[in-house]
């Protein structure tokens, strides 16, 4: 069995602001002493797991990350005729199974129903919560300790199996992520720029004021990004309870999303959607390794994508020469030359 699947991806994004920092500007990093643009792994993973590709392929096998489970349960209980005091008490008991609750109410009365940290709730757990809400509304009595055992092993939640979850109060139900995702960074020197813009009032005829109705600035950047993903296939199988069919659906959805889906930041302003220009997949039991070192020295030529592909493959071959074969088999998709295909790439990743 090929334990590890490694994916190396080059994607060119036009002017965009896919992933913002605390000042609203594109995130950055210094690599090889040179400023680069960066897209965080958290942003990428959220874009993939909430994409239409995941929803359509994996339907009822996706969880929900939320702090507001208690708010939803409270609303559902009240809608079923439970009095407010009981509904709040029971909702707190249910939400408290997934993490520590906040202690005080906010102006809307919801604060004490919120979990302090995001909880990733599996479909099985959500079904158990919904079933308990129905029984409580019918019986009109508080849940027992046995009824509040709502956490499950989550073997049907693909996003939890891939990207993991951590429940500090119930480590027994933690899941180690089967997919490790690096931060993407530009293969060349790049930094954020500022777009100075104005907006005109359509009803202003210029009789008294010819100025703009609004003036603002927005950060943006463009570049070719390198992304590395390592998937532990045996751990993914374990996390999914040995369901081979579900594992193959999960791998297909992940590869397609990686190739096609970008984070949603500022898409209405920049329409910066892009497909991967190059995707290299490797399989084997060898110790995984990123090829990011290929870009410590930034690409500086005119054909950035072509030179990045060449640098990536050159580094791969040199590592094979020094360390021995770092993978047992490889496939690539090259949209620059029209080589390979997404369907073939998916089949390669799925095969044992």
Can you walk through the features of this model?
This protein has about 350 residues and is α+β, with helices and mostly antiparallel strands. The chain has two domains: about 5-60 and about 180-185 and about 225-335, no CATH class; about 65-155. The chain contains eleven helices and eleven strands. The longest helix has 20 residues, at about 305-325.
Count of domain modules: 2
Number of extended strands? 11
Report the biggest beta sheet as strand number plus sense, adding barrel if it closes. 9 strands, antiparallel
SS field, number of helical segments: 11
Which structural class fits the helix and strand makeup? Answer: alpha+beta
In sequence order, what are the helices and strands, one letter per element?
A: EEEHHEHHEHHEEEEHHHEHEH
In short:
The chain contains eleven helices and eleven strands. With 352 residues, the chain is of the alpha+beta class.
Chart the SSEs and their pairings:
Elements: E1 4-16, E2 28-31, E3 34-39, H1 41-49, H2 52-58, E4 64-66, H3 69-79, H4 84-95, E5 119-121, H5 123-139, H6 158-163, E6 179-181, E7 184-186, E8 193-199, E9 214-232, H7 233-239, H8 244-260, H9 267-270, E10 278-284, H10 304-323, E11 329-334, H11 342-350
Antiparallel strand pairs: 1-9, 1-10, 2-3, 3-7, 4-5, 6-9, 7-9, 8-9, 10-11
Helix pairs in contact: 2-8, 3-4, 8-11
